[in-house]
Amino acid sequence: MDRRRPTDEDRKLARQGLARAFAVVEEGNTDLLIRDEINVAIACGLLSVEDALNLLQGKPPSLGIILTGREAHTLMIECADLVTEMRRVEHPSEKGDESPQGDRVLSVAIA
After folding, report:
1. Taking the C-alpha atoms of 59, 47, 78 and 103 in order, what is their torsion angle to the nearest 10 degrees?
2. Distance from CA of residue 1 to its chain's centroid?
3. What b/e string do you get for 31-48 counting C-beta neighbours within 10 Å, with b at 16 or more?
């Protein structure tokens, strides 16, 4: 995905992922929900911060939610119980691994 030019398909897939997250919360059959890179999806305009906050506010107390990705919105950080910034110590690409590069810079956990 080109972060500067998300497509309608990118938006559709992001909405589908968020809808699935709401369904998981409503089903109540899990203790932990991880929304990988949701902060990037919000920063790129694929999802609204309000939708993500609604997900958090509708969760039962027993459900932990982990939200990852760079550029976390201030409102997401403010409602978090734990915010972590990560820095690269070592990365497979530095050893010649041809895997896609990427650093997880910020994760947000809601207990």
Report:
1. 110
2. 16
3. eebebebbbbbbbbebbe
Could you report how far apart the first and last alpha carbons of the chain are, in Å?
Answer: 30
List the beta bridge partners of residue 33: 65
Bridging pattern class, strands 32-35 and 64-68: parallel
* 28-84 residue pLDDT tens: 899 999 999 999 999 999 999 999 999 999 899 999 999 999 899 999 999 988 898
Assessment of whether the complete model's pTM goes beyond 0.90: no
DSSP H/E element including 53: helix 49-57
Tokens of 76: 């997401």
